[in-house]
Batch of 4 targets.
Target 1
Amino acid sequence: MEYLPQESLTPQQIVSELDKYIIGQNDAKKSVAVALRNRYRRSRLPKEAQEEISPKNIIMIGPTGVGKTEIARRLAKLVRAPFVKVEATKFTEVGYVGRDVESIVRDLVEVAIRMVNDAKIEGVEYQAEKLAEERLLDIMAPYPKKKSAMPNPFEMFFNNGQNSNNTSANNNTYDADMQAIKDKREILKQKLRRQELEEDMIEVEVEDTNAMNDMLASMGMDDSNGNFSDMMGGFMPKKMKKRKVTVEQARKILAQQEAEKLVDFDEVKQEAIQLAENHGIIFLDEIDKIASKGSSHGPDVSREGVQRDILPIVEGSVVKTKYGNVRTDHMLFIAAGAFHVAKPTDLIPELQGRFPVTVHLESLTKSDLERILREPGNALPKQYAQLLKTEGVELVFTDEAITRLASITYDMNEQTENLGARRLHTIMERLLADIMFFASDYQGQQFVIDEAYVNEKLSDMIDDRDLSKFML
């Protein structure tokens, strides 16, 4: 997907970009496009006004496999915004065993840190490669150490005039060695740039990241948020270990180390927190699974507790992370659920009110499934064709085959559990199982997947009325 500056993206352009990968669901696309554009509009207001305007969170209602997650993920990718997807069912009320909801924000900040850090490292990549080259030369042809002119202080009194002669001789030897090393380094530098030494083995020092983790594991301590390891790192120096690697691997390792030295991590943390606070997108999946129906006993107690724990984060609060305090007031929350059993009104009223935009995603029709197989840039037939091309096998799908695959998928969704577009993966794997298995024996061959081939390979799925055994 082409990345476009956020300020240049109108809602129509956002929908147009999403159309390249997601078929149908125009209402949902329009809603997220407006939400994204409102962020840009807010950024152009005075600071006082910005604080007053909060994002209009969205709740998507629709069956599985219709594009709820993909819409949110593509939206974040479009503008390079920090994005996390979490299942609401993995969280528990405070006091119960399980993850607390504030870990959602911590995960988002980690994503933002990685994004900003990667961008910073990319900016110093050229400089880091130059420094890595010098370090490679230091390993392969280190400079000679200059000998001390007076190794023993008593020689000052008993050298009988020999010290000046020794110093002169040592200097001459050092200068000769230095010149020889400089010549050797110049030759090695040219060979490195011509990549003639890529397979040679050398020894480099790398950080031993397992040392602390092993210690914590032996103590039975959970280092899920990294705070304890960071605290210990302030008292204990980093433990290094030596590894034998090829020159090609060493260049990457050393370039990464040098890039990290060039990047100011305090600046990275500050930018990442601002990015997460103002542009972060949190996708709460399976929100319907924590909707209670008014019961006050059993698991419903914990479900309602999770909703009440989520509520302050969605409303706007301050979450403590190892990088600093993070405000959630202007993060965009997108919730999604099938709501087959529960209804949106089963959520606590306070939480309902924090998701003012509700969009319904429709089940996929036969025409939608056919378009999914044809139009997107990452359509499954295109993916399988690319995979087999690496083995020298050409895969071609006819129009009739695509239509037949869509028809079979639609019928199975209607007669059994509706898995939406996800069932296409099952169909395609079964259809191409033999070709994928024997691909290495078919180099240079072309396979045309037509309607007859589809009917032959999927005949048992078509004829068997009890399709339940083919469910995922």
Target 2
Amino acid sequence: MKIKIAFALILLSSFALWAQEPTVVERGKYYIFTWSTDAEVKSVPSQLTMNHLNGDVLIRGYHNNTIKYVEKMQIEASSRREAEKLWEQYHLKFEADHNGFIVNQEGKRNLSFGSHSIRVDYIADVPEMTSIAVNTLGGNIDVSELQGAIELVSAGGDIRIEKTRGRIFTKTYGGDVQAFQLEGKIEARSAGGDIEMRLVTGEISVETAGGDILLKTMNGNLDITTLGGDIELADVKGQKVRLKTMGGDVQVDDCEADLYAETKGGEIKVRNITGSVEGKTSGGDVYGRNINGPARLSTMSGDVEIMRITGAVDAETKNGSILISKYYSPKFENHKIFASTQNGSISLDLPANADVSFDLTARGYDNSITSDFNIDIKKIDSRLVKASGRLEKGTHAVELYVDNGNIKIRKRGQ
């Protein structure tokens, strides 16, 4: 598969190439060939395309107008003559093309070493304003210190990119992705590995089919998905954050954004959130701490615990208990509290001056309603208890529903 990327403003009016014959070092049964070339770039931004490689790739940007390219090949062979034949067979030329420079030989698109024991490193120092397109069949990719359009694809290795700005796309089919100090529109994909990002700013999209995702110190909108791993997020500023995993836990700390978190089979933990929170899981507990905004949290089988929340609350579980500690802030007009559970209890903690009206229902044979506040509690029959009342003006509704459980209203400080 040949990578195709459109790069704007790439004009190479003239260039020069300086190449040399490879140096060869013999170490026992191994022969190490090192071949290098330089290319002077007369006009930047420039472009380097590296297609159909089978080895590790290392690219660094620097303050110069020359591309320095090195191909280092270690060959296991019975003789130098055999090693030289293999070198000629697998060596890739560094050439100019209509967009810039390319490492790829037309007759070697299906580059495979077969049964030969060969290891290749492709190394390039390029002007920092260089766009890069790399496709390797079986090696790692390491890129840093660049400004431009970046596309990195590995069929079976890891990808690392750092200190880079621009439109960035990375994909590996069998390895991990690490990204540090990036800025721009960023997409990271892995078919079966972990993804780690730190100090990243921009529009950020991350997806892995079978690994964990760790993101720290992020600034921008995030869209994060994993089909079979955990998601951990910390120190985030943006407008919207979307997290989704099919079979892992979600943990978020210190987030200034509207947050959506979903997992099909794990826990959700969110702490120190400024913004709205929506979280749901099909099979785990949900914990919220220090939420400066409204929250809607639910689980099909587990407990819901929301401590120190300043906005409206919507909490629901089918098989578990609910604990809510509510604070009030003039920043928000809506302070409604709704909570519902089956086969569990609800405990609500309120300040003494709460301005609320109660509508409480407990059903089932094992049920009760208790309150530190003076409200009207009525036992309708052996399976139904209801309560109502108003504190202050009764501005904000408190609706709690329990099936086979208890309701407890507590006055903070008691």
Target 3
Amino acid sequence: MEFIVAIELGSSKMTGVAGKKNLDGSISILAVVKEDSSSFIRKGVIYNIDKTAQCISSIVKRLTTQLKTSISHVYVGVGGQSICSIKNVIVKNLPPDAIVTQEMVNELMDANRNMSYQEQEILDAATQEYKVDNQYQIEPVGIQCTRLEGNFLNILWRKEFYRKLNKCFDMAGVAIAEMYLAPLALADSVLTDAEKRSGCALVDLGADTTTVSVYYKNILRHLAVIPLGSNNITKDIASLQMEESQAEEMKLKYASALTENSDIDNSLMLNIDGDRAVESRKFIEIVEGRVEEIIENVWFQVPADYADRLLGGIILTGGGANLKNIETAFRNRTHVEKIRIARFVQQSISSKDQLITAQNAMMNTVLGILAKGDINCAGQEIDPNADLFTQHPSPITQHPTPQPREPRKANEIEPGVVITEAEKQQAEEERRRKEEEEEAQRQREIEENERRQRELEEAERKKRKENSGFKKVWKKFSKFLGDAITEE
């Protein structure tokens, strides 16, 4: 069995997806897992290493349970406030009558890559263009000049973030196949070539952060992460003296990015709970005030050189893009007429999981990371009679060892034996019946494991109150789970 595994470390949810790439380029989703991460990842920054490692381990184990195959390594998407972009210019003076060579261009690129930044390092570098004397060129090789200037957009991340991220995966016992910049993987999956070429701004409206990526002539021109997201709207609503869970429910039920004044009913009261309510106008003002702030910050991040070149428009995605009238609010504030919501990736995806089929823009990033993966992440098959949580994953291998062919099943036909049509039909029906029974059994096992996982998570939370030592809690958690599976 071959599949790719992608994990996105979001500020509200950590998501793991396993999918198989088909020969026609489509992707079949095999497993999807989501867990809350709001208590240990904030604005894309890891604050609690132990809890993050525990969550990564849980994600991988739950995927392993569904796949019935160990996971050798995973692809990881990084984003949030740990990344930023900085422009850099490298100049090379040439002798008279010199012709630009590829070696000269490589020297500029190497000089840029060797730039040092305090507490940060270059994760990726996007070449903007080259200035040959006084003219800008995308491909300068072969042009005669005396001055060659390289313009680069360096994408940086904090060294501390890299250290923490690796430590979390090491503690979880999960190997990283490759790290991808989440905003770039997202852009490759939701933007069209025409939008990138003609100029566009991709706005990923997340829970704690909003990421702005500006493209022009197929080149990333600017990348910025704003520390504002849809959770800020929830917290503002909660200021009306209610729990954040109630505020989130009200946001999903009543909130609109823009409401015409003529449509506001001053006498309308919105119920908070059985005993309390809030004025509709006051609720609208709170929501619109925060949305307006987010949009103004997004538009401020679009460089002035490209603000008038967004012929591809503004593309909205992420959970915040589901807010009612968000397109109209962006259109009114930015005066960009072409606004599109990217609710799903462009790749052909097949799945029965509701998180995928909902196509609500919340899974786009992790699916974009999955699409970029190209190395098989499958390890060894799991023995169904063994303890799924004590088996160790196989080491990283790009080419898994071929498995011996399984012995012929009882209802399979020995080669060379002639049988009648009736016998063929009977054998086929028997095979189909067994496959249906096996599939039903697998589904029951998955549901049982998920139920047991929820019970264990609840038990762990209770245990944590009695004993704050992480190792003691994890030891009890592992023993409890082992006993439960053994009893089964």
Target 4
Amino acid sequence: MIVTAAFYLFSAILLGSAAAVVTSRNPVHSVLFLILAFFNAAALFLIAGAEFLAMILVIVYVGAVAVLFLFVVMMLDVNFGQLREGYQRYLPVGATVGAVLFGELALVLGGWEFAPQAASALRLSSTPAGVSNTQALGRLIYTDYIFLFQIAGLILMVAMIGAIVLTHRERATSRRQNIARQNARQVSDTLEIMPVGFGAGTNVTGIIRPKREPEPVLADEPHTHGVGLPGPGEHG
């Protein structure tokens, strides 16, 4: 009786949290509702006897993925009002796609039923006798469904590479390091030692500005380093 009541309680909170993830206007609130949904899903895994999946869901998804989503949403500061400007224009297409997906889900759920030999005890505790939940899950994934597991990992890797390629942009404004120019720089180009008496401060020296960086040397100009100083291998 207590297990049944806990199942319905966590299921109701899970469904409400999932609906709030989609309907919340604030993206930060959506991520927080997503974390709540993960916790309730983990509780359902515990009720079903899959404690390993419950801990993995809390540690990986709540502790890493959801927190990463939260940091990304807070740092990007996306203008969602501007993104929703074309909502009404794409509403018919979105409603059509949603109706098709809903019909497919209805067909799948309408034709699905429990197998006659699947008793309630087997559905709630699918771990074989004498084997831990983690060991049984490892045998199932890496023995019976090893090829499907590898294909899923390959699909995720392709999606990760595609996201990197699509978001990578060459920025002309970014400053790049010039190794040859750094090696050719002399101490006198950037550093100047001034004799300052004890307690003089800025009353004697004044405010000293940083030295201006020398202009880059063109190919057709003589190669010099600093002000009137010959470079390495040159004799002035």
